[in-house]
Amino acid sequence: MKRTSALLTSLLLPAAVITAADSPPAAPVPAPAQLIKQSPMLSPEEELKTIELPDGYKLELVLSEPQVTEPVLCVFDGNGRMYVAEMNTYMQDIDGTNELTPKSRITRHESSKGDGVYDKHSVYLDNLLLPRMVLPLDDRVLVGVTNTNDITLHKDKDGDGKADEQALWYEGGPRGGNLEHQPSGLVWGQDNWIYTTYNSYRLRWNGAGVAAGKENTAANGGQWGVAQDDYGKMWWSNAGGEKGLWNYQTHILYAAINVSSQKSADFDTVWPLVGAYDFQGGPNRARPEDGTLNHFTGCAGQTVYRGDRLPKELYGNVFLPEPVGRLIRRATVEVKDGVTTVANPHGQSEFLRSRDLNFRPLNMTTGPDGCLYIVDMYRGIIQEGNWVKEGSYLRGKVIENGFENNIGKGRIWRLTHKDFKPGPQPRMLEETPAQWMAHLAHPNGWWRDTAQRMLIVKGDKSVVPALVAMTQKHENPLARIHALWTLEGLNALTPELVTEKLKDEDAQVRAAAIRVAETLLKQGNEALIAQIKSLRQDSSPTVVLQSLMTGKLLNWPDWKKDSQTTIFMSPSLGVKEIGAQLLVEAPKLAGNFSQNDKKRLEKGQEAFRTICFACHGFDGKGMPMPGREGVTMAPPLAGSKTVLQSDFLVKVLLHGLAGPIEGKTYESQMVPLGSNSDEWIADVASYVRKAFGNQGALVTKDEVKKLRTTNKDRVVAWTIEELRAGLPQPMTNSKEWKLTSSLNDSALSKALDNDPGSRWSTNKFQAGGEWLTIELPAETEVAGVELDNTRSANDFPRGYTVVVSSNGTEWSKPLLTGQPSGAVTELVFEKPVKTKFVKITQTGSAKGNFWSVHELRVLKPAATTAAVGAK
Fold it and tell me: Fewer C-beta neighbours within 10 Å, C or N terminus of the chain?
């Protein structure tokens, strides 16, 4: 594919361009890549020379250092003023020293002449902890920063460009975890709810000083950035699981669904111009001949282009930055029989790519001028410190290329085309609600979204009659949809109007009418149910699916049975594939739990599906590596000894895990999650121990706290060998032991026969007072006892007391008491004791369950090892 380059002539004037043929040849040949060993930082003019674009397109420099440094996103308010979040403490050296110091900022930039040249700059908010979310409302702005789920509301009251009013809008509380595993987005959806990544909930603006609304959603699987299309569907991207674009078949309110046909062949293969083998996934993610990235891995900050000042063929396309690959993917979008599909129209190439190793596109958005804006963090390291620790593959590549020295810069680019001029600057903050309403029909989606948001934030119902007329008479279906949702946001929706719109000639309007009807249905207006159910016979798969999803969301009686009939009878592939997934229920957890434990497990499940699934898979069997059959990104958790043995799992969650596991090296590194609370760690550990067929015990926050304190000086990840060396080991002389019990003495040998299929059992339901005694051949240092009843998972003791004796007649005070909850009961003493007899008494009751032991192990103390990993 032919590509050319040209020089940026001025920082204050539109930039010159690098052009290339817009349409790839029928059989494209990969462009030659270049392996670079050093990465000097370039000026904006020099950087532009390294960038390739299709013919006719050009990049214009909008902002660069020192006006912006370390930018991660940009958004616009109603007057076209740009807000830029800057993470000024992000990875300022290879170890991320002082990264969590509140020295970052949000800057505001204005074009005083309305010509697209941003010449007025101010620091809107300063001394922030790595700001990550910004949402202008009107002249007020919502902001989210790192390590909290709180969202604050700000206003520049005196017009000096600096916020001087602040209030808490949503109190989400503190949040831990790696900064790359925290929410982003804060996108006001067409449905008037606000969406973020990671959080399995959505928020609603109910006015300043009024508590935000909150509703649960499916786990979205997103990481950095959220985008929505013309019909309000959110588009997510995932880097940790190398998924690229995903979960875009349905709105995330209803489910996170993917189907096999949603991407063209090799869609996730990327085609960079330059490489340095500098990928967290290691050599397997690089083309050996040139070191270029071969698959999505760092995708982030996607947008759906909905502007009006670029060629029409781009409208509705999804643009996905890949900062690790130094490129931007353009994805064409087509709905085929209800299934949303994406494809790369540039063959073995990309829409935009650079030869500069410091080009790091992190975020894109459609601007008020109808152009596309690109946030280029322009730096060396683009992976957080946990992925470049001592001994990691990536650290060597960072040092080899000098990436750790390339910091403190950043650029905002505007994508334009030779056949179009950027549109005018908006002045919505000075306009009336009637003028805003007219913008609901604007060809640029940014204007439609902004006008709808401002109408709802203003809450002026004087426009309701005109909005009703727009839904009924406007020739543009998008205008009708926005008017409908604006009425919903103003609480001015009527059943009569919804009934009318359920019959609209446009399928997307009919689908929107079903969705807005949910608000009335929640208020008890059941008369609409029959009308919505009738649309399961609609000619449009989109409408049929929306009817099914609404029934599921509101849990209508027999919704599942009705849905099965609809799916079976439908000729639509999309209805069959997507509808079938709507019927799938979440896997059940092992055991019966108290209400408090259920809540803990639900929290643990949500956290797992937010973060852990990307590497371990939703089923706990490991996320499959794309293009490598049988290989997973991380080890399976189902049946894992690391999960079930001792305190391994909590130690790994707190400090991470490095090195091979059972002889296998996995691409994804288990990073420390210890910045999360003790309760969070306990909930996740408990969920993993009870999910995926596991039968482990629940973990308490006190147990986490104790381990955190014990290992407070640890600074490196654990290894499997180190964990196992610190574990009490089973004694091997079981043939010399003598067992006695209160019941069924003759079967005791089955607890020592190394056959997990046989067992000793009381053969009576647990009532309390049953006991089992182990006599060793001589007094021995004992660290504890392990009772394994995995094959009879519910036959664990409902309570226990453990005592010891040197002669079998005089017994110690209880060394352990408790109430286990798993198929393996670990009775580990606080410190080893010298004893000949160990007696375990079952103290609980369980109608319907015996007390059984399939394998009994007496544990000897762990071998003494030198301290590892301390400061």
Answer: C
Over the range 807-838, which residues count as b (16 or more CB within 10 Å of their CB) and which as e? eeeeeeeebbeeebbbbbbbbbbeebbebbbb
Torsion of the alpha carbons at 700, 704, 709 and 714, rounded to the nearest 10: 170
Residue type present at position 254: Y
| CA 190 from centre of chain | 21
Q: Do 296 and 243 meet the contact criterion of CB atoms below 8 Å apart? A: yes
Closest CA to 726 of 870, 864, 868: 864
Section 180-190 average pLDDT: 95
Q: Computed from CA positions of residues 241, 243, 244, 247, in that sequence, does the dihedral angle turn out positive or negative? A: negative
Is it the case that residue 41 has pLDDT exceeding 60? yes
The tens digit of pLDDT for each residue in 532-567 reads 999 999 999 999 999 999 999 999 998 999 999 999
Strand partners, 838: 774, 804
Residue 93 · residue 75 · CB < 8 Å:
no
Write the DSSP string, 221-246. ---S--EE-TT--EEEEETTTT-EEE
424 with 319: CB under 8 angstroms? no
Query: What's the alpha-carbon Rg for the chain, to the nearest Å?
Result: 30
3 state SS of 838: strand
Residue 685 CA to residue 690 CA, distance in Å, equals 9
Query: pTM for the complete prediction?
Result: 0.80
How many Å from the N-terminal Cα to the C-terminal Cα in the chain? 54
Predicted confidence at residue 213, as pLDDT, reads 96
Measured over all CA atoms, what is the biggest interatomic distance in the chain, rounded to whole angstroms?
Answer: 97
- Cβ(589)–Cβ(822) below 8 Å: no
Those residues whose C-beta lies under 8 Å from the C-beta of residue 204, and which sit 6 or more positions away, are 192, 193, 194, 212, 213, 214, 215
Q: In angstroms, rounded to a whole number, what is the distance separating the alpha carbons of residues 501 and 510?
A: 6
Q: Half-sphere exposure of residue 413, counting CA atoms within 13 Å on the CB side?
A: 30
User: What type of residue is 686?
Assistant: S
What b-and-e string marks burial along 26-37, b requiring 16 or more CB atoms within 10 Å of the CB? eeeeebebeebe
Please report the pLDDT score of residue 406 as a whole number.
96
Q: Show the tokens assigned to 194.
A: 């606000």
Closest CA to 776 of 785, 767, 768: 785
DSSP structural state of residue 743: S
| Both structure tokens of 564 | 């099965």
Is residue 36 pLDDT above 60, yes or no? no
Alpha helices (H) along 426-583: 433-438, 445-458, 464-473, 477-489, 495-501, 507-522, 527-534, 541-553, 559-569, 573-582
CB 132 within 8 A of CB 146: yes
- Judge contact between 276 and 397, C-beta under 8 A: yes
Asked if 134 contacts 154 with a C-beta cutoff of 8 angstroms, the reply is: no
* Per-position b or e across 679-717, b if 16+ CB within 10 A of its CB: ebbbbbbbbbbbbbebbbbbbeeebbeebbeebeebebb
Cis peptide before 66 (omega within 30 of 0): yes
